[in-house]
């Protein structure tokens, strides 16, 4: 594997982790009620998929 391929993979990993970190910080800065709202919607959606 050449160095260019390796650097490309590293950059991809960096951008994905950067994106997820930003999303995580955004969720943490949201009010608690919004967080619980999204959690309950996610749980209901999962149950709808399973059953």
Structure, explained:
- With 51 residues, this protein is mainly alpha-helical.
- The chain has one domain (3-50).
- It has helices at 3-29, 32-50.
- The mean pLDDT is 83.
Radius of gyration: 17 Å
Count of strand segments: 0
Q: How far is it from the N-terminal to the C-terminal residue, by CA?
A: 46 Å
Number of domains: 1
If you average the pLDDT, what whole number results? 83
User: How many helices in DSSP terms?
Assistant: 2
Outline type: elongated
Ranges where pLDDT stays below 50 over 5 or more residues in a row are none
Along the chain, the helix and strand elements come as HH
> Main beta sheet: strand number and arrangement?
none
Strand content: under 5%
Report the structural category.
mainly alpha
Range of helix content: over 70%
What secondary-structure arrangement, pairings included, does this model have?
Blueprint: H1 3-29, H2 32-50
Summarize the structure.
The chain is mostly helical and 51 residues long.
Which features characterize this protein?
51 residues, mainly alpha, 0% strand, elongated
């Amino acid at each position: 594997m050449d160095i260019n391929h390796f650097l490309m993979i590293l950059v991809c990993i960096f951008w994905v982790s950067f994106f997820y970190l930003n999303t995580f910080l955004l969720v943490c800065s949201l009010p608690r009620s919004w967080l619980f709202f999204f959690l309950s919607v996610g749980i209901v959606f999962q149950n709808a998929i399973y059953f």
